[in-house]
Design brief:
Shape: globular
Number of strands: 8
Distance between the termini: 20 Å
Pfam families: Ala_racemase_N
Order of helices and strands: HEHEHEHEHEHEHHEHEH
Largest sheet: 6 strands, parallel
InterPro entries: Ala_racemase_N, PLP-binding_barrel, PyrdxlP_homeostasis
Strand order of the largest sheet: 2-3-4-5-6-7
Number of helices: 10
Cofactor: pyridoxal 5'-phosphate
Mean pLDDT: 94
Strand content: 15-25%
GO molecular function: pyridoxal phosphate binding
Family: Belongs to the pyridoxal phosphate-binding protein YggS/PROSC family.
């Protein structure tokens, strides 16, 4: 897996990501920290990541576990990897073996949490961050747990998973919540995105439940916003945005 890239490709990638950063800066509410920008390099060569790494970037994300493992093996070890794809339980051990994995963004079951906890290396310096994935749009094609409401209690699925991670998985750190907005909402910037509103409300309800359960936990991050809707996500308080095609260009079709 080659890490060599042309000067022209490096310049294009730098221009693209700086353009995204300018839009993030313009959209960021006053007196708030800018959200983390995570370039998603799905199906793009490791050399693209190396080009942005050489330009000073350290957070990158992947959708496919084997692709992440292969790239992590050859790229610098101080990269902070985000896994943003669906994780099957039989791949939990492979994911946990990546030493510089920063966060699993798609946790949705206690089974997977337990498998990762069991598989984490004893040499790992800090807990592995996790986001709980929330299916805010209710679409069958999307993964994630149902959002919380004002009537939700500690038996609600998200709350159960959050409490399990906090109480039973010392190798994991509940960093926040993640969602993927619907196509329709993501392409209508004229009004607040209902999926982002739902995620913010879910965070509010979850924090209430955790407090009622006697759990002291810092503010939960929100990972929301991708290439089509990251500007709106930033305006609505996203902590971390995942941008792929706006930085790397259109992706090739995945081989069957």
């Amino acid at each position: 897996m080659s890490l060599e890239y042309s000067a022209a490709r490096g310049a294009d990638l730098s221009d693209n990501i700086r353009s995204v950063e300018r839009e993030i800066a313009e959209a960021s509410p006053p007196s708030t920290s800018r959200p983390r920008l995570v370039p998603i390099s799905k199906l793009k060569p490791a050399s693209d990541i190396k080009a942005l790494y050489d330009a000073g970037y350290r957070h990158f994300g992947e959708n496919y576990i084997q692709e992440l493992a292969d790239k992590a093996e050859v790229l610098p070890r101080d990269i902070n990897w985000h896994f943003v794809g669906a994780l099957q339980s039989n791949k939990a051990k492979l994911l946990a073996s990546i030493p510089n994995l920063f966060v699993l963004e798609t946790l949705s079951s206690t089974k997977v949490a337990d498998l990762i906890q069991k598989s984490l290396s004893s040499d790992r310096v800090s807990p592995l961050n996790v986001y709980i994935q929330v299916n805010t749009s209710g679409e069958d094609a999307k993964s994630g747990l149902d959002p919380l409401s004002a009537s939700s209690d500690a038996t609600a699925t998200i709350a159960t998973l959050a409490l399990h991670v906090i109480r039973s998985c010392p190798g994991l750190n509940l960093l926040g919540l993640m969602t993927i907005g619907s196509w329709e909402a993501s392409h209508d910037p004229t009004k607040p995105n209902p999926d982002f509103t739902s995620l913010k409300e879910t965070r509010q309800h979850l924090q209430r439940i955790l407090k009622e359960e006697g759990v002291q936990h810092s503010d939960l991050e929100l990972s929301m916003g991708m290439s089509a809707d990251f500007v709106q996500a930033v305006k609505e308080g996203s902590s971390s945005v995942r941008v792929g095609t706006r930085i790397f260009g259109e992706r090739p079709k995945k081989n069957a």
